[in-house]
UniProtKB/TrEMBL annotation:
Membrane-crossing segments per the record: none
Pfam family, one: Glycos_transf_1
Name of the featured protein: Glycosyltransferase family 4 protein
InterPro entries: Glyco_trans_1, Glyco_trans_4-like_N
Length: 405
């Protein structure tokens, strides 16, 4: 059986030996790639459908049981309702068909998959209407409209957490199954055996927005520095680079002392910084899941997150696997981080509890098996690979090709 996976794909962390090849930059999200790797490891043939702004013609990369189909994306796709991107993806899916498609997010990738007529399940990793309410701009309006089309047309939906599911309307809930996100089985292999904790805390967030709430984290760190004057704060992710919005805010309020504005980094480098941090502070006001917290728990780095921040309380086992705070209060955040830094017994208990809770509830084996079982229910038969286990050996083919009409 061939499973198609449509969505943003990080080509650099796929399970193939092309990481050092000159690959085009794609819209990427690590979880999609981890899911593809998990299917390959179980012997499935996988076709990944993603897109890029860097190619002029559709591109197909093939290695062993993995085929990656890269469609085109033009600048400012929201102004065209993503119609060009959807059609380019659909043509690629028609030219390189899978037996079943798992589409990540309820936007252009899922819309294209539904247009093929192939059995498709759409994963909801956010709730478009709630995002539109919080960020009422034209781009989010377009995204909500696409989401409305996709959710209306889809027969099978997945919610990545109970928090996401509970925000859905009754009709949408009736065709939605809850299957949590997961951490990859290879994550522990990325851990450094001789890693040493640095004297810093870390926040990893994509965007300096009201939702991500980095400004309150910066305020909290200023309070922490009074008690721990040598402590540093690493800010990683979009808008947290030198000269970015986070640094502009800190400079405006004279709060730059001890902060390193690092910005976006490759996945492995981010994980290394998380492993070496003393605490991961997650100031986000809302998360449908919270992958970076899960990664920190596996890396044995204690976590502080919001007590009302979407799925975060459940992910931290309501304060047993990580500490909860009021993310709207710099004092509350500083207090909880300070508790971990000053209490070795608490520190070690959170390390152990966080790792155990993550392993028991969000491991690759637990979650991917739930996906495959659900696919079997949709298709009315067990989902079986029918292929030998994926090995990197084989002939690599790289083509730019015309897609199907």
């Amino acid at each position: 059986m061939t499973i198609g996976v449509a969505g943003p794909v990080n080509l650099q962390i796929l399970d193939w030996d092309l990481k050092d090849t000159n690959l085009p930059a794609t819209n990427s999200f690590p979880l999609t790639s981890h899911f593809i790797n998990a299917l390959l490891k179980r012997g499935f043939k996988v076709i990944a459908y993603t897109n890029s702004t860097e190619i002029e013609e559709p591109m197909v990369l093939e290695r062993g049981n993995l085929k990656v189909c890269i469609s085109r994306q033009k600048p400012q796709p929201g102004r065209r309702f993503f119609l060009y991107e959807v059609e380019d993806l659909r043509k690629m899916m028609a030219a390189h068909p899978a037996d079943f498609i798992s589409a990540f997010w309820s936007y252009e990738f899922a819309w294209a998959a539904l247009k093929t007529g192939k059995p498709t399940v759409v994963s909801l990793h956010d709730v478009a209407f709630q995002i539109l309410r919080k960020i009422p701009d034209m781009f989010r309006l377009v995204r909500w409209m696409i989401n409305y089309i996709v959710v209306s047309k889809a027969d099978f939906l997945l919610a990545n957490s109970s928090y996401t599911y509970n925000q859905l309307d009754r009709k949408t809930k009736s065709k939605t199954r809850i299957i949590d996100n997961f951490y990859p089985s290879t994550l522990e292999q990325r851990l450094s055996a001789n890693a040493q904790k640095g004297n810093y805390i870390i926040t990893v967030a994509q965007g300096f927005t009201h939702r991500k709430n980095i400004e309150t984290g910066i305020q909290a760190f200023a309070i922490l520095r009074k008690r721990f004057p040598d402590l540093e704060y690493y800010l990683v992710g979009v808008d947290s680079e030198e000269g970015g919005l986070a640094q502009q805010y800190a400079q405006k309020h004279n709060l730059t002392d001890g902060i390193r504005f690092i910005g976006p980094l490759p996945y492995d480098e981010v994980f290394r910084l998380i492993q070496n941090a003393r605490v991961l502070l997650h100031p986000s006001r809302e998360e449908s899941f919270g992958m970076v917290l899960l990664e920190a728990m596996i890396a044995r780095t204690p976590v502080v997150g919001g007590k009302d921040s979407g799925y975060i309380p459940h992910l931290l086992n309501y304060g047993k696997a990580g500490l909860l705070c009021d993310v709207n209060s710099p004092d509350s955040m500083a207090t909880e981080v300070g508790r971990i830094l000053s209490d070795e017994e608490l520190y070690q208990s959170l390390v152990k509890a966080g790792y155990t809770y993550a392993e028991d509830n969000f491991s690759e084996d637990v979650i991917v098996d739930q996906h495959l079982k659900y696919y079997g229910e949709i298709l009315g038969k067990p989902v079986q690979p029918g292929f030998p286990l994926h090995e990197p050996e084989g002939t690599f083919r790289r083509n730019t090709i015309p897609t199907a009409k």
